[in-house]
Write a structure and sequence with these properties.
Layout lengths: L1 E10 L2 E11 L4 E5 L6 H8 L6 E7 L8 E2 L5 H6 L2 E4 L11 H7 L7 H14 L1 H5 L10 H13 L5 E5 L7 H16 L3 E6 L2 H7 L2 E6 L2 E2 L1
Parallel strand pairs: 3-8, 3-9, 6-7, 7-8
Antiparallel strand pairs: 1-2, 1-4, 4-5, 9-10
Helix pairs in contact: 3-6
Length: about 220
């Protein structure tokens, strides 16, 4: 589904990613594991169109038999329209909007009102606590609930592939287990998942394939 070839990411004079090549197969869970500064988030942000000073190839094939399309140089909103969605590190929900308003923002590129409402109910089925708190401001949710909201918002664009950047960060062990069970369920429903995670044990417990990164390189 997604092929990355010889990717370099630079911040000023620093090369955060140095010639990384990856393959993410359709329907799989692929995880990038490594310490802080290994380049994991730089890779995922580059796929999402958030890093500009990059070189190499990022090629997407949405359907079997399609020709691969280059994603280099596309804006983040164009990535969403091509079926790639990101749940970012730090959750980045809008604290002054309610749960349901945050979810609707995830569907900003869509115009099918009935489909959007159906997908909100699907998110509520995955995360019942969000349904209980649908009226509540995002900033008043617990850390675990905010993470659920961030994942739910990313699902609202109906992506072919969802990217999750450090979904367990700052969560208690029981919530980490719950989040990773949800990742498994999302994948079982046919979603391709690219997971960036420092918790190697949790990541490897759900992933079909892992790339280990160290100082910007696959080792």
């Amino acid at each position: 589904m997604l092929k990355i070839r010889d990717l370099y990411v630079r911040y000023g004079g620093i090369e955060a990613v140095q010639g990384v090549s990856l393959d993410i197969r359709r329907g799989s869970i692929v995880t990038l594991v490594g310490a802080n500064g290994a380049g994991k988030s730089s890779i995922i942000r580059s796929i999402a169109g958030l890093n500009k000073n990059i070189s190499g190839e990022i090629l997407l094939t949405r359907k079997e038999g399609d020709q691969p399309v280059s994603l280099i140089g596309l804006k983040p909103e164009e990535m969403v329209r091509r079926g790639i969605s990101l749940s970012p590190e730090g959750r980045r929900i809008l604290p002054h909007l309610t749960v349901v308003e945050n979810l609707r923002l995830g569907a900003y590129s869509r115009t099918d009102k009935d489909g959007i409402n159906e997908d909100i109910e699907r998110v509520y089925a995955l995360f019942p606590r969000l349904k209980e708190r649908h009226w509540q401001k995002g900033g008043t949710l617990s850390g675990g609930e905010q993470q659920m909201l961030a994942v739910g918002r990313a699902l609202m664009s109906r992506p072919d592939m969802i990217m999750l950047d450090e979904p367990s960060l700052g969560l208690a062990p029981l919530l980490v287990k719950e989040i990773f069970n949800i990742i498994r369920r999302i994948n079982e429903d046919g979603m391709t998942v690219l997971l960036v995670e420092q918790n190697a044990f949790a990541a490897l417990s759900v992933a079909h394939y892992a790339y280990i990164l160290e100082v910007g390189r696959v080792v």
